[in-house]
Amino acid sequence: MRITLKLFASLATHLPVEARVQHRVELELEPGTTVQEVIRRQGIPEAQCAMVLVDGVWVGPTERSGRVLVEGEALAIWPPVAGG
């Protein structure tokens, strides 16, 4: 199955170089792959996954290991933001 992975700000370094401009890459995954598995496979530090959305819906830290992705979904991840 295919999903779109979108990584923003400093997390874009976990994408292939050619995908960093658009902040997205298409991934081919096995059926049953969870949000947490994608985070780990891409080498994204879990502490840097402040905001995680699947098709615009928040996936909290305790839900990520059980949230199975399905064909065509978009997984978007932002790091913590500081400033003010």
Automatic annotation (TrEMBL):
<protein>
    <recommendedName>
        <fullName>MoaD/ThiS family protein</fullName>
    </recommendedName>
</protein>
<dbReference type="Pfam" id="PF02597">
    <property type="entry name" value="ThiS"/>
</dbReference>
<dbReference type="InterPro" id="IPR012675">
    <property type="entry name" value="Beta-grasp_dom_sf"/>
</dbReference>
<dbReference type="InterPro" id="IPR003749">
    <property type="entry name" value="ThiS/MoaD-like"/>
</dbReference>
<dbReference type="InterPro" id="IPR016155">
    <property type="entry name" value="Mopterin_synth/thiamin_S_b"/>
</dbReference>
